[in-house]
Amino acid sequence: xxxxxxxxxxxxxxxxxxxxxxxxxxxxxxxxxxxxxxxxxxxxxxxxxxxxxxxxxxxxxxxxxxxxxxxxxxxxxxxxxxxxxxxxxxxxxxxxxxxxxxxxxxxxxxxxxxxxxxxxxxxxxxxxxxxxxxxxxxxxxxxxxxxxxxxxxxxxxxxxxxxxxxxxxxxxxxxxxxxxxxxxxxxxxxxxxxxxxxxxxxxxxxxxxxxxxxxxxxxxxxxxxxxxxxxxxxxxxxxxxxxxxxxx
Length: 248
Ligand SMILES: Nc1ncnc2c1ncn2[C@@H]1O[C@H](COP(=O)(O)OP(=O)(O)O)[C@@H](O)[C@H]1O
Ligand SMILES: [Mg+2]
Hints:
Layout: E1 4-14, E2 17-28, E3 32-36, H1 43-51, E4 58-63, E5 66-67, H2 73-78, E6 81-83, H3 96-106, H4 111-124, H5 140-153, E7 158-162, H6 170-187, E8 190-194, H7 198-204, E9 207-212, E10 215-220, H8 222-227, H9 229-234
Parallel strand pairs: 3-8, 3-9, 6-7, 7-8
Antiparallel strand pairs: 1-2, 1-4, 4-5, 9-10
Helix pairs in contact: 3-4, 3-5, 4-5, 5-6
The structure holds adenosine-5'-diphosphate and magnesium ion (MG).
Magnesium ion (MG) binds near residues 43 and 44.
């Protein structure tokens, strides 16, 4: 089975500080993989390395069996591996619809069909009512979903999301959760989601990969990870007798 993004033995050092150490990670098409761990665990560095914004000190990255370790982010995106950024990069004066239509075109979609496809994507994200407004006029939560839809419009096989719910209120987080949940089935995409919101992670992820101090602590289903003693100690800061808890 080659339909996956695979990190093998990935290590990243910053001036002697080891941010990642021999990490193996697999993201399959059609799944939602949660990437969690305390602050500084190496989550963003791993997503940067997968997407080509960080060159690993050791190890390889494969996409569908091809070694992309030396590929630029743009070339990886053309191979189907796309990431979003915490700060949404939109064209603020363009309409919401045109922002997504540009994503469709960037992904090789046909000009004639681009707006219709963009409208379908907006409907998926419950953003139809914003279609003809300027992107800059949207509220925060809607703008976040727009950023994700624009990335989805390029038809990625794998989409990496770094803290998509950061700064959203409970209602906006629920709306985002509903959109993320449907993406694998409706678009055949594999999602990697970094998130601190445990309700979101435990609710939508098929599998969860836990990092701590740059190493893999556990990989498994939400219930397996939740029950894992090492995860409870490191991530939830649950103290054993005589141990000091470390906050997430
Ligand atoms: N560009 C950088 N230069 C130096 N150290 C960095 C850099 N980026 C991240 N780090 C360090 O690498 C470790 C992992 O950081 P990061 O990947 O941002 O963790 P997380 O996303 O899990 O909070 C931290 O110790 C952080 O300080
Ligand atoms: Mg981070």
